[in-house]
Design brief:
mainly alpha, 2 domains, two-stranded antiparallel sheet, 8 helices, globular
Length: about 280
């Protein structure tokens, strides 16, 4: 492993470890203070995330926080050993494409949730208290999806991607799983991290992953508020999510096929013109 790659790995691992330790300590302190769980956990998450982003900037540089290009070293003997820019993602997809990737991801994540539940069993989850519903909504639907996608899929993955995309994707997924407490939650988060980074990679944008993450958290919010005692009723919304997700996947496949057909037709026309010349 090259020295540059070691620096990249350390530059990601150090802020991640600090973030995890700080969040655990703050959770303990909030529990001792008697603060409502949702308020304490949200404040701990926000403070730990801010510290993680700060130390990430310190270790990887301010340019790693911004969209644009990254760098990777030239082969030995070329360009005097300097680093060349490399585009971190393909060209950003259209808004329609990003939405389709998000919906496809939701379908896959819903199936994954059922598969993990079947493998490890369901874990007891308490319903949200009525007096903390607003705080739960803000934390689960707004704060966590944006910050987690920014930290794991944007900062960590983009920083590690020049080393090797598959390694970078798996590494950030493992780190994403570590911050989820229960065994079932960690297993689901591991697969979710892989699905979400694929969405980001294929769409060329973080927006699709954020939307998918928000929709899945919205699903959890609804189930822990209005459908806590209606176990049979949970199947219907999930079937809708899965159906919509796979319809979006089909849309993406058809669109990809049409683009290939158009590209092939364009090459044929160009070839015909060249033959005439």
């Amino acid at each position: 492993m090259e020295k540059t790659n070691i620096r990249r790995l350390v530059g990601v691992m150090m802020p991640f470890v600090i973030m995890v330790i700080l969040q655990r300590l703050l959770l303990v302190l909030s529990g001792m203070s008697g603060m409502p769980d949702v308020i304490g956990s949200t404040l701990a998450f926000l403070a730990a995330s801010a510290a993680g982003i700060f130390f990430f900037r310190m270790s990887c540089g301010a340019e790693a926080l911004r969209p644009g290009t990254q760098t990777q070293p030239e082969p030995d003997g070329e360009n005097g050993g300097k680093e060349n820019p490399v585009v971190p993602f393909p060209v950003k997809d259209t808004l329609f494409g990003q939405l389709m990737y998000a919906l496809a991801g939701v379908g896959v994540l819903t199936v994954t949730m059922y598969a993990v539940t079947a493998a490890v069993g369901s874990e007891p989850v308490s319903a949200f208290a009525p007096d903390t519903l607003a705080a739960e909504f803000v934390s689960l639907i707004l704060i966590h999806p944006f910050l987690e996608e920014y930290i794991f899929r944007w900062l960590y993955y983009r920083e590690l991607r020049p080393m090797q995309p598959i390694f970078a994707g798996l590494t950030q997924a493992v780190m994403f799983a570590i911050v989820h407490g229960s065994v079932g939650g960690m297993i689901y988060a591991l697969f979710a991290g892989i699905v979400l980074v694929l969405i980001t990679e294929l769409s060329g944008s973080l927006s699709a992953a954020v939307i998918a993450h928000m929709l899945m958290n919205l699903r959890s919010f609804v189930y822990l508020t209005w459908l806590t005692e209606a176990e049979p009723m949970r199947l219907m919304p999930d079937l809708v999510l899965i159906s919509v997700g796979f319809a979006a996947m089909l849309c993406l496949l058809v669109r990809r096929g049409l683009r290939k057909a158009r590209a092939g037709a364009g090459e044929t026309e160009d070839g015909g013109e060249n033959d005439d010349d």
